[in-house]
Write a structure and sequence with these properties.
The complex is a heterodimer of chains A (252) and B (160). By secondary structure, chain A is mainly α. In chain A, 69% of the residues lie in helices and 0% in strands. Chain A contains 11 helices and no strands. The relative contact order of chain A is 0.15. Helices cover 26% and strands 22% of the residues of chain B. Chain B has 5 helices and 7 strands; from the N terminus they run ααββαβαβαβββ. Chain B has a 4-stranded mixed sheet. Chain B is elongated and about 55 Å long. Classes of the chains: A mainly alpha (252), B alpha/beta (160). Chains A and B meet through helix 2 and helix 6 of A and helix 5 of B.
Amino acid sequence: MSDNEALLAYVTRLGDNALILSQRMIEVVAQYPELEEELANANFALDYIGQARLFYSLAAKLEGKDRNEDDFAFLRDGHEYRNVLLLEQPNGHFGDMMAREFLFESFYLLQLEALQQCDAPGVAEIAARAVKEIRYHLRHVSQWVVRLGDGTEESHARMQQAIDDHWQFTGELFAADDIDTAFTEQYSGPNLELIRDQWHDNVAAVLNEATLTKPADEWMAAGGKQGRHSEYLGFLLAEMQHLQRSHPGATW
Amino acid sequence: MSVTRAQVLEWLSHVPDPEIPVLSIMDLGIVRDVVVNGTVVVALTPTYTGCPATEVIEQSVIDALHDQGIADVSIDRVLSPPWTTDWISAAGREKLREYGIAPPVAGASKREMLQGDRAIACPRCRSIETSLVSEFGSTACKASYKCTACLEPFEYFKCI
């Protein structure tokens, strides 16, 4: 794999993670029962769209095929998406969403902190910008995990179930494939083993405060990073891409 | 072209931020550079990656310079170093306060500021007897507070 291929693939994954999570969050915009969380969700989704745009614009430049950020978002099929499976799972209830964001952002923050130091052209700058936003998100969702976990009997049980249900998707975050390895070697990228240890420590601390039990690492789902997705991604893309697929090039 | 860099910067000091129009883009600290060399290139940095005002600001800059007779204007988006609230000028902070928005605490880029307790002074009566109503406000960059001394609600420009 050439340097540029690994870099392009890696940056595309970063953009896909950001976009797919933002699309899931956007699905519940204007459905929150109270204003503060409504704004939090919408603002966080907007941060992710902003990050996706930066990563896709960089990917388009690296690719050099005259595609732009919109082409990456709207004109690729499911098998071309490289987001982790965790992020395409359906929203479920609020506790499920908090579990998903908590588990992912506990990883993404560490990934971005490491990427700030990497040598890949353009990546460190985006990471330095994004890391401030994700630090803020993680603080917020961690508070919800604690509040619901250490809440009522009902909220505790549902938060525990949400963590348990999403745990099987966390292994993929740390499973280095040839793209991760090439990127890390060529550009002093993140050390996923180191990040996994830190992630376990950080997640355990919040779960402990939340009086929740940290699940054991058993069977882990994988494939999203290689383009093998669950059925849910197709439905998500069908909705997100509908307009550009039906009316190519439409603008307003 | 006889225009100077200083002249362009002066014109840009009249371009308002679309979400907080009391601030100019110079006050906000998002103009990173101006290069005058036959054409005018204005280097801008976004506040938040997803800030919906980014495109509006870029167009405002182009329009403002077109109005001054500068036809050839381009925008260079720069990300590094990332913008923090520390880039807001002293004059900008005072304008925010007068407008009723509590300015961000200086030294905001420190990680502790995001996680530690903060004493936010009321922009009207300057009391620090204030309480957080919501971490999230009308735009991504603001939180909602109320003053327990003068009872006025106000917005606080969050530190990032």
